[in-house]
Amino acid sequence: MPPLAAHHIKALTKLSPHLPITSSLAHHFTDWTGKYPSRSYEAIKTSTDQWHGTCILRPANVEQVSSILKYATTNKIPVVTQGGNTGLVGGGVPIQEDEVVLLTSAMNKIIEFDKDTGIILAEAGCILETLQDHVRPHGYEMPIDLGAKGSCQIGGNVATNAGGIKYIRHGSLHANVLGLEVVTPDGKVLDLSRSLKKDNTGYSLKDLFIGSEGTLGVITKVAIESKPISKETFLMLVGFQTFPEVVAFFRQAKRYFGMLNAFEFWDQVAHEQVVHHLKLQSPLPTCPFQVLFETEKDPLDFLEESGAEQCVLADSVSQQLNLWSLREGIPEALSKCGKVWKWDVSVPIDRMMSVVENLEGDIVSGYGHLGDGNLHLNIVKSSMSKEMERSIYAKVASMGGSISAEHGIGQAKSEYLPLSKDANSLEVMRNIKAVLDPAGIMNPGKIFPSASKEC
Ligand SMILES: Cc1cc2nc3c(=O)[nH]c(=O)nc-3n(C[C@H](O)[C@H](O)[C@H](O)COP(=O)(O)OP(=O)(O)OC[C@H]3O[C@@H](n4cnc5c(N)ncnc54)[C@H](O)[C@@H]3O)c2cc1C
């Protein structure tokens, strides 16, 4: 598509605050992985002057979002909503040159927080960590936590149905988001933000927007229930020689504790990279597999009973933070090794590492949220063949797994979606999209496979 016509840019920038496009804003046109630059990315990055082919709008309120979408629908102008731009599937960046980038970062007010119920109502552009810091002094924690917390926004979290390390404890955002305010492509504002725990009034429209990845509308407010912080927690790092031992340990821990606050694992390859690139101290430098798990009950008897030989129990808050950085630093450490190809899949827990076996690459590593059966397979390699990518997704599908556990579909996985959604379900999804977005302006090229590319 050609760049956006000048008269449209003029009209849109009258409807909302905007950022003049110079090379310093090129990062809005590519994603965190660097694998999905938009068609205009190079032109913007290298331009010495202002680039006039598209616009970045930064609305301050829901009314401005509404007027932007109304204008875009009337004039068939594509719009990509961008939160913190930490997504890992190329969902929050434009593809074509004529796409308007709608930043939610100016809508960043915490509207209210109820100290009795823990329910927080916030604008979509609030950074997740800001919300975590807001509720903590009152004895609460957000039901979601992830490595990108310092940059990702609550609107982006909801739009991707993000998972993370608290999923095993608090469940998905479908369980914790109580309400939303959403602007649909025709400019209508849907008030789905009543902060009620029970609201059984027909179709759950808010659930439609959780995980919709900017393809159905713009989320402008989120009501979400934060949870009382556990009075006491115990964090342990345990080392294992084989993956079956890890699985047996997880099952034993689940039976013993009933509820786990977190249960993460990583392999030796990931561990070496995090220690090397982030200069972290490792208490267990040579174990083929490591598990980091958090409980609310004292684990000493359990650890004795389980026969765990290599084990460290954090004895201070700073040691807890150090142990967490061994896990949370893995994506960053791997990204320092070269070009990283990522698969975020869910499979039966005992078969997780079989997805990682026999793959070629400079570095091949598996880690993830073991308690949720969520594997992050990472391969560092200068280029990735379609055959290899497809064969990994096909293997996951043959195990009854999902091609996307928590990162969403975006551009990265759209052609593989039929492996995890049957044809009838995909048709219903397309019909819903057509009803809400008949002009097809919201985030084109994301989620849905184009007819020619379906595998
Ligand atoms: C180091 C690192 C660790 C990560 N760990 C995890 C993890 O543990 N679990 C996990 O699930 N993800 C993880 N991620 C991925 C990412 O952080 C999440 O997907 C996050 O929810 C994206 O939020 P964002 O604000 O950055 O959204 P963006 O990347 O800006 O956008 C993501 C998608 O949501 C849409 N969108 C954004 N805001 C809105 C809105 N207000 N309304 C409508 N659509 C919108 C965009 O169009 C796009 O399709 C990680 C990423 C990094 C870099």
Distance between the termini: 25 Å
Which bin fits the share of residues in helices?
25-40%
Question: What is the third-level CATH name, the topology of the largest domain?
Answer: Alpha-Beta Plaits
Q: Main sheet, how many strands, which sense, barrel?
A: 7 strands, antiparallel
CATH class of the largest domain: Alpha Beta
List the ligand species: flavin-adenine dinucleotide
Tell me what the structure shows.
The chain has 455 residues and is α+β, with helices and mostly antiparallel strands. It folds into 3 domains: 6-103, 2-Layer Sandwich (Uridine Diphospho-n-acetylenolpyruvylglucosamine Reductase, domain 2); 110-228, Uridine Diphospho-n-acetylenolpyruvylglucosamine Reductase, domain 3; 234-398, Alpha-Beta Plaits (2-Layer Sandwich). Helix content is 29%, strand content 20%. The chain has 15 helices and 18 strands. Bound molecules: flavin-adenine dinucleotide. Flavin-adenine dinucleotide is lined by residues 32, 80-88, 91-92, 104, 124, 146-148, 152-153, 155-157, 159-160, 162-164, 213-214, 218-219, 331-332, 406-407, 410, 443, 446.
Name its key features.
455 residues, five-stranded antiparallel sheet, alpha+beta, seven-stranded antiparallel sheet, Alpha-Beta Plaits, single chain, Uridine Diphospho-n-acetylenolpyruvylglucosamine Reductase, domain 3, Uridine Diphospho-n-acetylenolpyruvylglucosamine Reductase, domain 2
